[in-house]
Design brief:
- It is a single chain.
- It is built from 20 helices and no strands.
- By secondary structure, the chain is an all-alpha fold.
- The protein starts with a helix and ends with a helix.
- The longest helix has 27 residues.
Length: 388
């Protein structure tokens, strides 16, 4: 029993010694006179050190990293490309951040000094095409934002942090780390310089793997949070295709109550009605769209599609069973539908002669002129298509 007791005491003593770490770690790092060598010394012992010892260690590492950072700043100011090593600045800033984290005695002094160095990281992240380097520079900047040792020294928000967030999001996106890309792109939307691109990265990340209805609802909520007016059409269509037609009616009514001339609200409702084959009702909404905006090509195109669907529906459902022809009042209605479709597509032709918005309008017009037997117009369209 005595021997076991002594062994246990020895183990307790070893644990106690281990927890105390190395009180001379700062001197050992300083003695290396080289940042990489000093970092290797710290890495070998880091798990045994107290926070106080870590603060001392990082303080010495910062001093070893600082000369290379200073040389890079001098090279930047002298426009000496060969002497610029942005990684040296990133390293110094990272060490300053660790001084802050572990309450080094010189943390405040160190971080005041680093304020002049940090903006260079933004230029570095912006100029490099290397994904890993872009991430290194941007994260060094982000992690050194809101340092507790700087409280009361600098007033206001960090002017470049959202640019850094954007560069980080680009890197994470390229690495297909969509969770972090979303995390950093969202605050970057606040920066006017990168707002649109940051917003698209954020939405692209949220849109990854929309496998379930809940995924789609989450994406809809992200669109609503960003800008419900800008993404009105997408929100409405997503609600519709997830089976939430009631939600579509609700947001359309809200949009029209807010602005009776909201052409997109009419366009969305017309699209929903058309999907349900309620063509006559859809027609009223599409007419309202082009009434509000006579130069809106998509509105005229949808109007043309709706009229064409009405004509086709009459052909399918009301043709005489014996002759296969549309007769009487239905023929009158079908002719009116063809005329309406032709008028709408001719307006598309007028507004979009180079087919940049609606590439297939010549084919649609040819089909319609064929349907009413206007051979001269069919030949005219054939020339446009180069088929003569």
């Amino acid at each position: 029993m005595r021997k076991i007791f002594i062994t246990m005491l020895a183990a307790v003593a070893a644990i106690s010694s281990f927890a105390q770490g190395n009180p001379k770690i700062a001197k050992e790092i300083k003695a290396t006179k080289d940042f990489n060598a000093g970092k290797a010394v710290l890495d070998q012992q880091i798990s045994t050190l107290t926070d106080e010892q870590l603060g001392q260690a990082y303080s010495e590492l910062y001093k070893l990293a600082l000369p290379a950072a200073k040389k890079t700043v001098e090279a930047i100011e002298a426009k000496n490309e060969a002497g610029i090593d942005y990684k040296a600045i990133a390293t110094a800033v990272e060490m300053a951040t660790m001084c802050d984290k572990y309450n080094a005695k010189n943390a405040k002094e160190v971080n005041i000094e680093m304020m002049a160095y940090r903006p260079h990281l933004i230029n570095a992240a912006n100029s490099t095409t290397d994904t890993d380097d872009k991430l290194l520079y941007s994260m060094a900047y982000i992690n050194s934002t809101n340092l507790k040792s700087m409280a009361g020294v600098l007033a206001g928000d960090d002017p470049y942090v959202n640019l850094a967030n954007f560069f980080a999001s680009v890197s994470f996106y390229q690495k297909k780390d969509f969770a972090n890309a979303a995390k950093y792109s969202k605050p970057a939307i606040a920066d006017a310089q990168v707002s649109e691109n940051a917003e698209q990265i954020y939405l692209s990340c949220i849109a990854q793997n929309l496998d379930t209805k809940q995924d789609t609802i989450k994406y809809i909520k992200a669109l609503q949070e960003l800008n419900p007016d800008k993404y009105f059409t997408q929100i409405a269509l997503l609600y519709y295709y997830t089976g939430e037609s009631g939600k579509v009616d609700e947001i359309v009514k809200q949009a029209l109550a807010k602005d009776p001339n909201n052409k997109m609200a009419y366009l969305v409702r017309g699209t929903m009605l058309g999907e349900q084959k309620k063509y006559e009702e859809a027609l009223g909404d599409y007419k309202k769209v082009v009434e509000i905006d006579p130069n809106y090509i998509t509105g005229w195109e949808n109007l043309g599609v709706c009229y064409t669907n009405i004509a086709s529906d009459i052909e399918i459902n009301h043709a005489d069973k014996r002759t296969g022809r549309v007769l009487g009042d239905y023929l009158v209605k079908q002719k009116a539908a063809f005329d309406g479709a032709i008028e709408a597509y001719e307006k598309v032709r007028e507004l979009d002669p180079d087919r940049k918005t609606v590439s297939n309008w010549p084919m649609q017009l040819r089909m319609l002129y064929n349907a009413i037997g206007n051979k001269a117009k069919v030949e005219e369209i054939n020339k446009i298509l180069g088929e003569n």
